Amino acid sequence: MGLRIRASDMTNSVFALLATGECVAKDSWFISIRIIAYRELNWFAVFGLDGTYATALYTAAVKTSALDPTAKALSSLEALVSKDAKLSTILAAPTLSAEDKTAIVAELTKQAGAGSQETVKNFLAALAENNRLGLLPGVCQKFGEIMSAARGEVELIVTSATQLDNKTLNRLESAITKSSYVGQGKKLKVTNQVNPEIVGGLIVEVGDRTIDLSVSSKIAKLNKLLTDTL
Q1: Which residue in 12, 77, 97, 199 is a FRET match for 227, CA 20 to 30 A apart?
Q2: Where are the alpha helices (DSSP H) in the chain?
Q3: Are strands 153-160 and 201-206 parallel, antiparallel or unpaired?
Q4: According to the model, what pLDDT value does residue 140 have?
Q5: Pairing state of beta strands 3-6 and 33-36?
Q6: How many CB atoms lie within 10 A of CB 200?
Q7: The model's pTM
Q8: Low-confidence residues of the chain, pLDDT below 70?
Q9: Would you list the domain boundaries of the chain?
């Protein structure tokens, strides 16, 4: 178990640094520390160093009343790095010079449409200062998880062999919303993933629960039964 710290206990550390732009703290201080953000999140936790930065950014954005534009900027950055493998490699390069980092931060800020968002610029500068630009994809993902928790969202991932139509997805969403899988007052965030390898049927993931109704799963179970019998 790591050390549990309320966000409010750290306002003079990385959260304050991100909010003010004084990005001089070394992230080694956060290793093995579990940061738990508390803002109506019921102690929602994100782990790892990327989770630490994501939590710091979230708290700084709240304190500067810049949560929505920050979320929009992080979403843009996530889309940018996810579609450009070369960019991810460059960000993780250990040989980046100070000039390289400055140029990268400026370009990322531009691509994120965050030219006027000091919180985002300071966050990117903090990653660069600590040689952690390679964490950006993970930070974007963890930030999204924190935002979902703040909005009371529960992720629903429906995997199918082919793309499902909106009517089918809406029926699934309605049925699962009424089930015990979703807490009271929670909202579903629905994603349809396509994987032809499941052959048919569905794999439904709600939060940390998985319901495997795929044809491939049934075939695998049948094969195991036949193998065990023979």
Answers
A1: 199
A2: 14-20, 48-63, 67-82, 85-92, 98-111, 118-129, 136-150, 166-177, 215-229
A3: antiparallel
A4: 96
A5: parallel
A6: 14
A7: 0.64
A8: 1-45, 230
A9: 3-150, 153-229
